[in-house]
Design goal:
Chain A: Keywords: Amino-acid biosynthesis, Branched-chain amino acid biosynthesis, Transferase. The structure holds 2 protein chains of 2 kinds. Chain A has helices at residues 15-26, 54-66, 95-107, 128-138; strands at 2-10, 32-37, 43-51, 70-75, 81-92, 111-115, 119-126, 143-148, 152-155. By secondary structure, chain A is of the alpha+beta class. Chain A starts with a strand and ends with a strand. In chain B, helix 7 links the parallel strand 5 (125-128) and strand 6. In chain B, strands 2-1-3-4-6-5 form a 6-stranded parallel beta sheet, with helices on both faces. Chain B has a 6-stranded parallel beta sheet with strand order 9-8-7-10-11-12, with helices on both faces. By secondary structure, chain B is of the alpha/beta class. The complex binds thiamine diphosphate and magnesium ion (MG).
Amino acid sequence: MKHLISVLVENKFGTLNRVASMFSARGFNLESISIGETEDPEISRMTIVTRGDDQIVSQVLKQLNRLIDTIKVTDLTRQPHVERELLLMTMKLSKATQHEIFELINVFKGKVVDIKQKSITIEVIGSPDKINTTIDIFRPYGIRELARSGAVAIHRGE
Amino acid sequence: MNGSEIFFESLRREGVDLIFGYPGGALLKVYETLHDIEDIKHILVRHEQGATHMAEGYARATGRPGVVLVTSGPGATNTVTGITNAYMDSSPMVVFTGQVPSSLIGNDAFQEADIVGITRPITKHNFLVKDVRELASTIQKAFFLATNGRPGPVLVDMPKDILNASCAFEWPEQADIRGFKPTLKCHQNQIEKAAHKIAEAKRPLLYIGGGVITAEASEELQELATKLDIPVTMTLQGLGAFPASHPLSMGMLGMHGTYWANQAVNKCDLLIAVGARFDDRVTGRVDTFAPQAYKIHNDIDPTNVDKNIKVDLPIVGDSKNFLQGILKALPKKAEKHEAWLNEIRQWQEQCPMTYTVEEDSLKTEFVIDQVSKQTEGNAVVVTDVGQHQMWTSQYYRFNRPRSIITSGGLGTMGYGLPAAIGAAFGVTDRPVVLFCGDGGFMMNIQELVTAVHYRIPVKIFLLNNSYLGMVRQWQELFHQEKYSFTDLEDSNPDFLKVVEAFGCRAMRAETPAEAEAAIRSALDYNEGPVFVEFRVIRKDMVFPMVPAGGSISDMLLERLNPKTMV
Ligand SMILES: Cc1ncc(C[n+]2csc(CCOP(=O)(O)OP(=O)(O)O)c2C)c(N)n1
Ligand SMILES: [Mg+2]
């Protein structure tokens, strides 16, 4: 099962490496990892997506906790949370397709960030599921390049 | 103060009076400062790997962290095996490495190695010092981490410019690490639940690991075991936590454990694991391990719980706190276990640990048994890795904690000699004895210089079978007797001559009578190291044995017949 783990870590060099190499050393699955500063510049938040049964995920959480540079580890999976991912994607553009493409961008609440004679770059924000669907739907129009941020997530407020 | 002075002042604050090191370019300033220091003794090793094993031997013998000082690049990379060894066996150690100047880091500078990157997965934590003002507090953190919670090695990388820069010396009141809060105190509800299970059990068994020795909880263990007549079996690192001479001691369990300890695991209805981690050399096949038992597991490291084996009652916390808690919570009325102990005694009689003695040939078992008798189980015993190591666990009767110093987790050949030297630096009121194989002895033989130079009275007992014996044993049992590259007969040196050339006293024994006399004479000699080469039977095998991945109920009891399963 997929798990979404939020980790507060010391904002120091090498921390990302410690976490990533722990996953590879222990043979844990690491689907995505994203990191950025929090409201406190000394602390970063990492969002990790991993897969495994309960026993494995419980080991993942304990191993994360064991790292000295981790301050707090939370499994958000079964708690109220918001999860978002950013997609940037460049596609082919032609007279024949442009109408449909613009319509779909609207459907997915995307934004055009750049447009050229023969290509268009868009951004879409949403749950990783929505991003997957977006990519599937646009694929027939000719995707040139795409980049995904990986999930970021946070507890829902009270 | 400059960085080098801050370095030594910080060591003083940590109570360090002994370091194992080797100089080099990145450490010139440190060694300049060291030249005029008298209250911190520096031991010059002959290879940085030796320094790490010495520091670990010292740490295991004394309980205090071992300290290593090496230069950048090759000096640093030479410590990798020793650091890994300390990590696997949870030994407290702080390794200081010199580093190229900060401005050159990342440039492939002369003698640059990314030792922080290299040692990330093999240290409990590591640091690169980026500002001289952080040097003292980093050293404080390093010692705090190495010695608190589950102990382990910590590395501090110190660039050359930091060691030359100056600032005021500031020593924080205490190390402040917000991400490190080990659970020492066990949960009271869990303790009470465990105490009830223990009081009710008909066939309980204590399974004791090195954590009990680290936690200095031997007294509590003895009190619990004798109060309820609970038999005690120990892991390799746990030996000595409970005296071998006590009738409740079942010796070691696992791959080369006693038949009766493994049978007891197999038949017990309650298994109380304390400071042990269900290592694969202990459990064999996990799904058949202690199949009838309710399992209680106390460990200080939460990641050890439910890692290899799912337990019924996990209790995270310090093992001393756990045992004290259990003793307090035990109900007045608790079962005694006469019938269970009788059952175990029968297994003991069925398959005792014995060996035969012949007048004109020598067995390793005999040598170890003799040393055990002559030292009355009170020596600090260090081993290398191989058959002699397993025989030591079987035939040396460890009567006190901090008595076995051996590479358990990593199984590092070459560990023994330097670890024994390090142990002898820390312990002077008990003899320090090394059992070593002819293969492993060659792996850090250079440290004999260190032992001779500092006149360390370590007893080096070489069990020479002219084979990489443990590998030969597996080749015979499981690999069609293809003795591929394990026969050292034609290539081994004349050990007596080699050792004498180092300036070390050396003897040889080829019969039981000679062995007995040589051991006596070695134990009597305390002016420096002494070496005895025992020429033992070449093709002996260690039994009983659980084949790797087999069930511990299926031990091989005899030699040369892998089909004999009991
Ligand atoms: C550094 C290292 N290399 C290889 C091994 C694999 N190994 C385990 S035991 C052993 C043989 C040891 O031979 P010896 O030192 O003569 O001891 P004996 O088994 O004969 O008592 C070997 C090669 C190891 N444990 N460590
Ligand atoms: Mg040998």
